[in-house]
Amino acid sequence: MDTHVGIVLVSHSALMAAGLRELLLELGSGAVPVELAGGTEDGGLGTSYDLIVRAVAAADAGAGVVVLPDLGSSVLTARTALEDHPSCLVALVDAPFVEGAVAAVVTASAGASLAEVVSAAEGARDFRKL
Is residue 85 among the annotated active site residues? Predict the structure, then answer.
């Protein structure tokens, strides 16, 4: 497969999303599209419907897109954006933000399908650190 499943990070903080993206780009060897919808359009804390819509479009290389929100209103905003712009190739994933994103990008970098990337991200909920 020439294209990889893309990842969209939806966070209340642009800085937090950017830091995670830095890690993901390294782990995915730059082959996996990782886009950000962090903060508000004016640079503040919060979430932005428009940033989410644009990030999903930018991450879509043809194999699908996994959307990972951090918490609270990012989930609601992402859900609304995806309901307004439905696609069977976009999945909003209930997974831990960091661990889910890491699992998703590693799996996507191996050329996995959208369903496999979603499953890997969701499975990260069971990762133990100690």
Answer: no
